[in-house]
């Protein structure tokens, strides 16, 4: 072997990402008897978004006993809504319990992947070498790449600048003047935590969210003992939590008018904590409850009512030196800027790194909007399966439920691939179009599309390519098995013998 040759490792399956989706895929592969796989992770540990988001107050807004794998219940959750450290620790235990460590490849960022039609394999270039795989599972997740607005003057800001998902723990905010940009799920957790320690907090808000009280409490030691001794008790609780959330779906997707009662409760939540009429007006949304993600907090409004907080009901327009300038012309001198501005969800950066059978990248294929059959497979990209793909997001329940449904589909996909005799399966354009036309038809009357807001659920064309317009039970039925009628069978081209 010459010193310039590159060693290429071939695996049956290459999984990209080691959050809930990637680890879940790894567990399912082992359970299906597939051990020839790797999990490519760009960071140095597992956890995905629960590793990256370590900002003050980071916690889940789905009950702990529902936000965990059905095959790996945790009887020792400390709170009804668990924090980031507990969820990350849970994922580390998953890696150990299911013997996933030998499959994990840390510091392996996927720089590019392309489909080689001659071999019917995916070729993946990573920061640590090249792999080939019969099947690629993209479990990067939509909340993996932070979105920071390109603002005039930001590069010249002399203070600290960081995104909530890249929190700078070495920077002490004590006594500092801090601007928080955004009012999403991260910001409403960050603000109450840092407000008591900073000198001044400026919240730059484009649109206020609807916020409901957070019914959070410690889970008692007696409850934990019960769950350990009687696993059926924990399963019953999980089923009850699931049922409640399933029953809410109809209001979001079919009858938004039913959300008026919930909106009235959210309005009373504002009135209870915010006595200043001017501030109350700033914090009261002008769109229907549920149109944007409904948030949970008991501490956000009380923090905003403190004298060292200034709510600017206008987005950040530019930065001049150490001054942040809002769209309404309001100016504030600050020492640090914290962006809670979300992620690249409808324009996932990995899309530009994956090249399909026609030589087009996934980003090019999705330039008019993301689309996939059953949120999992994409026409022109054989043997590529997404975990948390287009239109698989939820507005009110646990994404782990959707992940497990897609893992069912993955398992059946591999079984059908083996029995078909084909090297790969490729979704027919017609099947993908029919599926997505039906999804968008059902999406048309949802509160997300009709509620009068502009949310991160919508792409640049105004299409909702993020959420699933139905129950998790419905999605599980739709992904229970692979219908080969929706796929073309791809075979390795026959080679012509060389002539002498």
From TrEMBL:
SUPFAM superfamilies in the record, alphabetically? FAD/NAD(P)-binding domain (SSF51905)
InterPro entries the UniProt entry points to? FAD-bind_Monooxygenase_sf (IPR051209), FAD/NAD-bd_sf (IPR036188), Flavin_mOase-like (IPR020946)
Keyword terms, alphabetized: FAD, Flavoprotein, Monooxygenase, Oxidoreductase
Domain of life of the organism encoding this protein: Bacteria
GO MF term list: monooxygenase activity
Report if keyword Oxidoreductase is assigned. Answer: yes
Could you tell me the EC number(s) of this protein?
1.14.13.-
The record's family statement is:
Belongs to the FAD-binding monooxygenase family.
What is the name listed in the Swiss-Prot or TrEMBL entry for this protein?
Flavin-containing monooxygenase
């Amino acid at each position: 072997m010459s010193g310039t040759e590159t060693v290429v490792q071939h695996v049956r399956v290459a999984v990209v990402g080691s959050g809930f989706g990637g680890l879940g895929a790894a567990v399912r592969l082992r359970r299906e008897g597939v051990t020839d796989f790797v999990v490519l992770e760009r960071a140095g540990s597992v956890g995905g978004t629960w590793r990256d988001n370590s900002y003050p107050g980071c916690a889940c807004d789905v009950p702990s006993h529902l936000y965990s794998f059905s095959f790996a219940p945790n009887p020792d959750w400390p709170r009804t809504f668990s924090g980031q450290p507990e969820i990350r620790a849970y994922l580390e235990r998953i890696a150990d319990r299911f013997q996933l460590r030998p499959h994990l490849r840390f510091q392996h960022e996927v720089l590019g992947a392309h489909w080689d039609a001659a071999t019917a394999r995916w070729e993946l270039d990573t920061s640590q070498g090249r792999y080939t795989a019969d099947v690629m599972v993209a479990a990067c997740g939509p909340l993996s790449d932070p979105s920071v607005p390109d603002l005039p003057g930001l590069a010249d800001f002399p203070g600290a600048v960081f995104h909530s998902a890249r929190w700078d723990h070495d920077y002490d905010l004590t006594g500092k003047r801090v601007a928080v940009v955004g009012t999403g799920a991260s910001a409403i957790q960050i603000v109450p935590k840092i407000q008591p320690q900073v000198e001044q907090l400026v919240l730059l808000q484009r649109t206020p969210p609807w916020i409901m009280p957070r019914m959070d409490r410690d889970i008692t030691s007696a409850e934990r003992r019960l769950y350990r001794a009687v696993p059926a008790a924990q399963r019953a609780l999980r089923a009850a939590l699931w049922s409640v959330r399933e029953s809410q779906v109809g209001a979001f997707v079919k009858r938004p008018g039913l959300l008026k009662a919930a909106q009235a409760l959210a309005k009373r939540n504002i009135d209870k904590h915010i006595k200043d009429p001017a501030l109350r007006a700033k914090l009261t949304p002008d769109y229907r409850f549920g149109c944007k993600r409904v948030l949970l907090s008991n501490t956000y409004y009380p923090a905003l009512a403190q004298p060292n907080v200034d709510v600017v009901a206008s987005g950040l327009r530019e930065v001049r030196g150490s001054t942040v300038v809002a769209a309404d012309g309001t100016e504030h001198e600050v020492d640090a800027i914290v962006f809670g501005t979300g992620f690249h969800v409808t324009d996932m950066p990995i899309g530009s790194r994956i090249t399909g059978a026609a030589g087009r990248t996934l980003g090019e294929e999705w330039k008019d909007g993301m689309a996939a059959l059953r949120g999992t497979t994409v026409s022109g990209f054989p043997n590529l399966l997404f975990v948390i793909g287009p239109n698989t997001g939820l507005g009110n329940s646990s994404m782990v439920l959707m992940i497990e449904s897609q893992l069912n589909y993955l398992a059946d996909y591999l079984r059908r691939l083996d029995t078909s005799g084909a090297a790969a399966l490729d979704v027919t354009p017609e099947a993908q179009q029919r599926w997505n036309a039906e999804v968008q038809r059902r999406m048309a009357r949802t509160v997300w599309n009709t509620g009068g807001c502009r949310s991160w659920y919508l792409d640049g064309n105004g299409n909702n390519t993020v959420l699933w317009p139905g129950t998790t039970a419905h999605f599980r039925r739709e992904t229970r098995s692979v219908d080969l009628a929706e796929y073309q069978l791809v075979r390795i081209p026959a080679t012509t013998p060389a002539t002498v």
